[in-house]
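Annotated sample (chain length 186).
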Amino acid sequence: MTQEELIKRWHTPDGVQRRVNVLELLRNQGRWPEALVGFEGVGDVVANVDLRGIDFSREDLSGVQLDSARLEYACFDGAILAETDLSYTRLTGASFMRVKAPNSGFVEVDAEGARFDEADLTKALMFHSNFVDASFRRANLEGTDLSRCKLHGADFTHAKMVGLDLMHAWTEGAISLPSELDPTKR
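Output written by the structure step:
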C-alpha cells in the first residue's frame, strides 16, 4: 500500500472504529492486534501489528507497549509517550513533533526520515537505531542514549544535548552536532 492509502484507511468508518478499539486495548494492556483482524492491509504484516499511517496526535499513551509494531507514516504530534516502549518498531516517515516522551524506549527502531522536532526525549533509550535523515530540531535530548545509532543527515539544529550519549554512533553528515559530542573526538 502507498503512504496515502495507509493513512486514508484510518479515515474510513471501519478505520475510525478500529482506532478507538486499538486505543482502548493499548491503555488497558489488552491484545490490540486482535482489533485489526480483517482490516485493510493488515495481511501484509506479520501478527497483525499494523498501525501504519495511524494518527495518535495529542493522545496520552504513557506507559503503553507498542514494541515491534509497524508504525510507518504514523503521526504522534503532541502526544504524551512518557515511559512508552516503541522498541523494535518501524517508524519510517513517522512524525513525533512536540511529543513528550521522557524515559521512553526507541531501541533498535528504524526511524529513517522521522521527525522529532521540539520533542521532549529526555533520558530516552534510543540506542542501536536508524535515524538517517531524521529531524531533531529544537528537541530536548538531555541524557538521551543515541549510542550505536545511524545518524547520517540527522538534523540537530538548536537541540538540547547535555549528557547525550553518542558512543559508537555514525554521525558523518549529521547537521548541527557539536564537535565536542562527536564520538570520533573522544
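Annotation: The longest helix spans residues 13-27.
Annotation: Helices lie at 3-8, 13-27.
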